[in-house]
Amino acid sequence: MSPNIQEISKTKDSFSLKELNVMLKKKNKSIPTKFLYDDLGSKLFEKISNTKEYYLTRTEEDILNKYSTKIINESDAHELLELGSGSSKKTKLLILEALKVKKNLSYVSFDISEKALKMSYNQLKNISSDLNIKLIKGDFINDLEKLEQINKPRLYLFLGSTLGNFNNDTAIKFLSKISKKMKKADFFLLGIDKIKNKEIIKAAYNDTAGITEKFNKNILNVINKEYNLNFNPEKFDHIAEFNEDKSQIEMYLQALSHQKINSKQENIEINLGEKILTEISRKFSDTSIQSIFKDSGLEIVKNFSDVKKYYSLYLLKSI
Ligand code: SAH
Ligand code: TRP
């Protein structure tokens, strides 16, 4: 049986071909990150999580294994609301813990990808009759306001270092929106990837099995379908490099030849060697993330980390 998915935005209409053309005609070309996550993209992301180089998922999972009880006891939540939930595999650890102390627990999975919502549902549907699962398809940048308020304590979740995929302004705007939504009894658990040896970071985005490369190139198939374009993914190289000044991974598609792309509006030209930015992934220090929290009206209740200090799960409250 297919699960019930509530759609709160018309995500397809929210970004026009015109806007995409503008981004692809600039000197510094880019494609919005959300186009990485169609059905195939969501499956590929799950595969990336299991590669030996991608330490993030594993590390976050270890932290959750160790501290779920503490997090659940502290937050006393009746509802767990997760943004960009993906498959909810790690979240299951928190849910199982919460079910030990709460009857009628609700879990809300919010994601732009229908495939992710279905994976999440399949992950959780059989764990307990005490768990009420709600699936919402929406865009966490544009649709947060539409999330309904509840009267019981809620634990917001934003895992997988997805905050690192936002630039500073977007990160602060996003966190401020959540902070404003949060009531006194609410908590927010946020997963953040930390600065470490850059070779370790780079390897995570250049796995030898080539899954991240497929994931990156798939963004072209997605926009081809969505906007009737004719990008050929084979004519691009996958590049993921670490920008030390900005402390971020930058993922690009680099043209292997001069290319003309046809669209219903203007045509797009891409020169040999030109790079299209598809994603950034920022790596934070304790200080850099604390300054973002301060600017977003959030305060740290606890910081849970692994022994190597590769990753942090911050339990936050609204100020
Ligand atoms: N939290 C999961 C998945 C992280 S990958 C984990 O830790 O493994 C990022 C997730 O955010 C994907 O499931 C993707 O579909 C979703 N996503 C990306 N852009 C989004 C947007 N604009 N609005 C809502 N969800 C989005
Ligand atoms: N939030 C994840 C990260 O920054 C998203 C991600 C994982 C990702 N692997 C990727 C984004 C590869 C682009 C390319 O790590």
Give an overview of the whole structure.
With 319 residues, this protein is α/β, with parallel strands linked by helices. It has two domains: 15-52 and 198-282, no CATH class; 55-197 and 284-318, Vaccinia Virus protein VP39 (Rossmann fold, 3-Layer(aba) Sandwich). It has helices at 17-25, 39-49, 55-75, 91-101, 114-124, 168-181, 198-204, 211-227, 286-296, and strands at 5-7, 29-30, 79-83, 105-111, 131-137, 154-158, 187-193, 236-243, 248-255, 259-261, 268-270, 275-282, 298-305, 311-318. The strands form three sheets. An eight-stranded mixed sheet has the order 1-5-4-3-6-7-14-13, with helices on both faces. Strands 2-12-9-8 form a four-stranded mixed sheet. It is globular. The termini are far apart. The mean pLDDT is 95. Bound molecules: S-adenosyl-L-homocysteine and tryptophan. S-adenosyl-L-homocysteine binds next to helix 2.
List keywords for this structure.
319 residues; alpha/beta; Rossmann fold; 2 domains; four-stranded mixed sheet; 14 strands; 35% helix; binds S-adenosyl-L-homocysteine; binds tryptophan
Give the topology.
Blueprint: E1 5-7, H1 17-25, E2 29-30, H2 39-49, H3 55-75, E3 79-83, H4 91-101, E4 105-111, H5 114-124, E5 131-137, E6 154-158, H6 168-181, E7 187-193, H7 198-204, H8 211-227, E8 236-243, E9 248-255, E10 259-261, E11 268-270, E12 275-282, H9 286-296, E13 298-305, E14 311-318
Parallel strand pairs: 1-5, 2-12, 3-4, 3-6, 4-5, 6-7
Antiparallel strand pairs: 7-14, 8-9, 9-12, 10-11, 13-14
This protein binds S-adenosyl-L-homocysteine and tryptophan.
